[in-house]
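Good morning N.,

You mentioned wanting to compare the apo and holo forms, so I went ahead and generated the holo version with zinc ion. This is what I fed in:
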Amino acid sequence: MKAAVLRQLNTPLEIEDVDIDKPGPNEVLTRTAASGICHSDLHVIEGGLPMPPPCILGHEPAGVVEAVGDGVTDFAPGDHVIGCLTSFCGTCKLCTAGRPYLCPTQYEGRPLGSKPRLRAADGSDLIQFANLSSFAEKMLCPERSLVKIRDDMPLDRACLIGCGVTTGLGAALNTVNIRAGASVVIIGCGGVGLAALQGARIRGAGKIIAVDAQAWKFDIARKLGATDCIDATDGDPVAAVHELTGGGADFVFECIGLVPTVQQSIAMTGRGGTAVLVGVVPVQEMVPIPAADLTLQEKNVTGSYMGSNRFRFDMPHYVDFYLDGRLRLDEMISSRIGLDDVNDAFDHMRKGEVARQVIVFD
Ligand SMILES: NC(=O)c1ccc[n+]([C@@H]2O[C@H](COP(=O)([O-])OP(=O)(O)OC[C@H]3O[C@@H](n4cnc5c(N)ncnc54)[C@H](O)[C@@H]3O)[C@@H](O)[C@H]2O)c1
Ligand SMILES: [Zn+2]
Ligand SMILES: [Zn+2]
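and this is what came out, ligand included:
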């Protein structure tokens, strides 16, 4: 099958012919229909998220099941599925306590030392990203990386739910409790931020303020529910938020992952409010924050990982939200491309020229 392989950090992905194994016990082979491109893939390419090459990136997929291994009970050939990187063991303390997205076992399905699922044409091993590797025509995953969805959901939109939408929407719906009328700021209107914005709208937030360095994104943000927009390149966005909210917002979602914007998110948060860190700051970097603000103004800072998901439960609901019109995905897609154009897509992402780009397979 054809796949885009990261051979070395900071180099273009190479389109190669790759071997994929047959499904082993509790594994599912899926034909990839579509894969969104998430900034976390770019973080891996740039070394901000550790994942040693050679590997196949891509972790925002939807597809159709082709074959299942022994013991698979939840899927059958022909099922439409979304893949999620938070595969869960189902038995640990966090899984059984209702927070499977924090499962520490990094459930892989195949015991350590087993045959790899993916191999290059020369027989060498390729690392699978997050049990998925969706920049490839097929995926071989543990069944606990997948969820079955309705057949009437278009797969080129379903894929967005695999990471960005679940991350942003779930940050607003699951991680924190946004009361109707609360003021909300979204910093960064990429796929993740635009989903968090919609979560705030679904929750009935009052002011929903979108902040981005690319003013053209505000057309999309307004369509998806932003009441106000702040161009981060035009004056001080922190002062602008304080003015619009009368002293700081109830919730601020940082959806970029830069040190200055994390600091801005805390500065934009009002007394007693909550800054939600959704963007991934490169693992090598530290963020100095004014701790006294947290104490004296009782500001909260929380992280949000993968939308605090229980994806087998959440994702079918998000599909329903799309099909009943509450969740808007069409507006979030800037382009549909072929796998061969994946490197151009990362260039567009670096320049902030796009919202979400989707690779569509034949
Ligand atoms: N917490 C999680 O579980 C999780 C999951 C998925 C992705 N992420 C992370 O979320 C972040 C966003 O991902 P994405 O795919 O939406 O990225 P993206 O590149 O599509 O969007 C980032 C947005 O930030 C804007 N931006 C960049 N610099 C800015 C600045 N200084 N001020 C204002 N706006 C600025 C860009 O114009 C763009 O609209 C990434 O760090 C990604 O790794 C986190
Ligand atoms: Zn992602
Ligand atoms: Zn677990």
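The first strand starts at residue 2 and ends at 6.

Happy to go through it together on a call whenever suits you.

Best,
F.
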